[in-house]
TrEMBL record:
Pfam families hit by this protein: FMO-like (PF00743)
An annotated Gene Ontology molecular function: N,N-dimethylaniline monooxygenase activity
Keywords per UniProt: FAD, Flavoprotein, Monooxygenase, NADP, Oxidoreductase
Required cofactor(s): FAD
Alphabetical list of SUPFAM superfamilies matching this protein: FAD/NAD(P)-binding domain
The keyword Lipoprotein is assigned to this record: no
Oxidoreductase recorded as keyword: yes
Protein name in UniProt: NAD(P)/FAD-dependent oxidoreductase
Stated family: Belongs to the FAD-binding monooxygenase family.
Region spans: Disordered: 494-532
UniProt cross-references to InterPro entries, sorted A to Z: FAD-bind_Monooxygenase_sf, FAD/NAD-bd_sf, Flavin_mOase-like
Length: 532
């Protein structure tokens, strides 16, 4: 099989099988495009929801807003779903929409280079497979590569060390002295999950987080039955959740002072669980709520107040044997270190493996900061689109809404390539530098008024202190600006076909089937699968 695929050519290659990758695959099939592959580095679909299996792992977006609009799921068991339920949903999407025939598992992209003469991408995977693609969708996502800080002496630690995204389920934490490094979304879920079983839990907090109550509950059987039998009720619930978050955007993006009321709610939430004034002072942030991502938990503060928990309000500075030393000199001897220190968001590792038209890697192109036209297209990297690219992240709503908007852009991109290429030969679109620059200036100008620019140090910021992560607007606005590819923003390159193509196409080829019949069929199939 490897030999057969050595010189395989496909119309579209999708990298990753999380929400972005699977969503791209569904939309390609619904557009009548079947000549594509999905390259997945793991052995199963799910992306970050496959990798993150730490105790307590769950989503902080309401379940009914954390699903595709074209694949509604009335069977969510809780208002905020756990990792296992989200991964099961993605597995179901892959099965219902017939995506597994397109997915190549254990196929991590090691190198991807643009061929300016042939107008296609040459891709090499970890399996040694080589293929070419006219168009590539990079759907690896920003939460895919764990980030562990370079701590002096860590290599000499005698105990167990791992990241929350690489949880070692074979290591028994019971009776151990455990240190958790970081106070982000993963850490506040891990801490209460493991606190009851460890002998002693030490949390190293560099910066406190604002934590709000988590309105989580079991969704009743009656609710689930109603949503399944009367889809309009499920749609209404989703729209209400969406609308509430759209109304919040103005406070985040334009009027941060309005968030003072929310700070009061968060403070009262903490006071109910933490009675020690000294600990409350350590847990109270000095920045405006929303500058860093607002976290949701009902169990985090109670876990910190337990007798076997220590809070060190200082970052980890060095490791001396089995002793961890904080920046303020506080020491703690532990058996295991768990890093909840996030991911390579503004310095995605895959960017080092993508070489553009001039031989420069995407990482080199983004050395001064990530930027892409409408969050999708980087200049110098033709026919490459990034899902959840620069300045597409959200601080208060569901990323699935952003992903679906970008998938609209992707479909229009591929269709315009087909229209302009016609029978005469291939074409490629390369984002004009001036268009990318104008778009980036527009986004950064809007960012200046936002809560994300009020002075905190967050993972939204790159090494230069610039916010290259968040979208400073509503999801409906983003959907509007990505509704179509504007050709005036791209340079169009052509290569006439001579004596036919020498590449071998897999699949049925690129066939566009207009109309809504296909969409209706797929939606019906998804409902049928759920009811069955």
């Amino acid at each position: 099989m490897a030999a057969e695929r050595e010189h395989e050519h496909v119309r579209v290659a999708v990298i990753g099988s999380g929400f972005g990758g699977l969503g791209a695959a569904v939309r390609l099939r619904r557009a009548g495009i079947t000549d594509f592959v999905v390259l997945e580095r793991r052995e199963a679909v799910g992306g970050t929801w496959h990798d993150n299996t730490y105790p307590g792992c769950a989503c902080d977006v309401p379940s009914h807003l954390y699903s595709f609009s074209f694949a509604p799921h009335p069977e969510w068991p809780r208002t905020f779903s756990g990792q296992e339920h989200i991964r099961a949903y993605l597995e179901k999407v892959a099965d219902t929409f017939g995506l597994r025939q397109h997915i190549r598992f254990n196929s991590e992209v090691e190198l991807m280079s643009w061929d300016a003469e042939e107008l296609h991408w040459s891709i090499t995977t970890g399996q040694g497979t080589r293929l070419t693609a006219d168009f590539v969708v990079n759907a690896t996502g920003p939460l895919s590569d764990a980030k562990i800080p370079d701590i002096p002496g860590l290599e000499g630690f005698g105990g167990k060390v791992f990241h929350t995204a690489q949880w070692d389920h074979d290591y028994d934490l019971r009776g151990k002295r455990v240190a958790v490094i970081g106070t982000g979304a993963s850490a506040i879920q891990v801490v209460p999950a493991i606190q009851p079983e460890v002998e002693r839990l030490t949390l190293f907090q560099r910066t406190p987080a604002w934590v709000m109550p988590r309105a989580d509950r079991e969704i009743t059987a009656l609710e689930r039955k109603l949503h399944a039998k009367v889809p309009a009720t499920h749609y209404l619930r989703r729209q209400i959740l969406w609308g509430i978050r759209e109304l919040q955007v103005s406070a985040f993006a334009k009027h941060p002072k309005m968030l003072g009321l929310i700070e009061g709610l968060a403070t009262r939430h903490m006071k109910r669980a933490v009675k020690d004034p000294a600990m409350r002072r350590k847990l109270t942030p000095e920045y405006r709520i929303g500058c860093k991502r607002i976290l949701l938990s009902n169990s985090y503060y109670p876990a910190l107040a337990r007798p076997n928990t220590d809070l060190i309000a200082s970052g980890l500075k060095e490791v001396r044997g089995n002793t961890l030393v904080a920046a303020d000199g506080t020491e703690a001897e532990v058996d295991a270190v768990i890093f909840g220190t996030g991911f390579h968001v503004t310095d995605m590792p895959i960017a080092h493996r993508i070489k553009g038209a001039d031989g420069m890697t995407l990482a080199e192109s983004w050395s001064e900061g990530m930027e892409a036209l409408r969050g999708c297209s980087a200049s110098g990297f033709p026919n490459l689109m990034t899902v959840i690219g620069p300045n597409t992240g959200l601080g208060n709503s569901s990323m699935i809404l952003i992903i679906e908007a970008q998938l609209n852009y992707m479909v229009d991109y591929v269709k315009k390539l087909e229209t302009l290429g016609g029978e005469s030969g291939k074409v490629a679109f390369d984002a004009r530098p001036e268009a990318v620059g104008a778009w980036n200036r527009h986004v950064q100008d809007r960012m200046r008024r936002s809560v994300w620019s009020t002075g905190c140090d967050s993972w939204y910021l790159d090494a230069n202190g610039r916010n290259t992560t968040v979208w400073p607007g509503t999801t409906s606005e983003f959907r509007k600006v990505t509704s179509e590819v504007r050709l005036e923003e791209y340079q169009v390159h052509r290569r006439p076909t001579q004596n036919g193509s020498t590449a071998v196409h897999s699949g049925a080829g690129a066939v566009t089937v207009p109309g809504s019949a296909g969409r209706g069929t797929k939606t019906a199939a998804f409902h049928a699968a759920e009811e069955g």
